[in-house]
Amino acid sequence: MKFRGRVFKYGDNVDTDVIIPARYLNNPEPEILAQHCMEDIDKEFVKKVKKGDIIVAGKNFGSGSSREHAPLSIKAAGVSCVIAESFARIFYRNAINIGLPILISKDASQNIEDGSEIEIDLDNGIIKDLKNNKEYYSEKYPKFLQEIISSGGLIEKIKKEVTQ
User: Fold this and answer.
1) Which domains does the chain have, with CATH numbers?
2) Are 103 and 75 contacting, i.e. CB atoms less than 8 angstroms apart?
3) How does it assemble (predicted)?
4) Which segments of the chain does DSSP mark as H helices, in order?
5) Do the beta carbons of residue 157 and residue 149 sit within 8 Å?
6) CA-CA distance, 18 to 164, in Å (whole number)?
7) pLDDT (tens digit, 9 = 90+) per residue, 76-121?
8) Which strand (E) or helix (H) includes residue 9?
9) How far apart are CA 29 and CA 72, in angstroms?
10) Is-above-0.85 flag for pTM?
């Protein structure tokens, strides 16, 4: 599985309150959540993000509440992948469960610049910055996580298995 997109870069401790502010949680529809994604940290994000773009952040991305609305809003906004130096555990789990790929890479997090175009080879854990032709690495997903991601999330994977 490969992704290519433009980078939106943020710092450390991007919490779920700024990913999707609580005032929008009364409507769990992904399309509505996407309209307010990252609104409290970057008011222009929704206007600028395009399908396939990638978020790169620092440490502890997705900290705060356990709301699954946060990765859902990111995915619905069109983001193909999130790369960070580290993730809050519950955000990591929620992202995988909805089929949003997230990668841990300290080098990529620290060196890739906002606006760069990058390419991600998820199967091999390779992140390539096309601006300067540098490669960074993350751990490869185990096969069962790759299957969840490629199915579009845990529920979709289970639906496929039940119907087979």
Assistant:
1) 2-163 (3.20.19.10)
2) no
3) Heterodimer of LeuC and LeuD.
4) 16-19, 30-34, 45-48, 69-76, 89-98, 106-111, 143-151, 154-163
5) no
6) 40
7) 999 999 999 999 999 999 999 999 999 999 999 999 999 999 999 9
8) strand 2-9
9) 9
10) yes
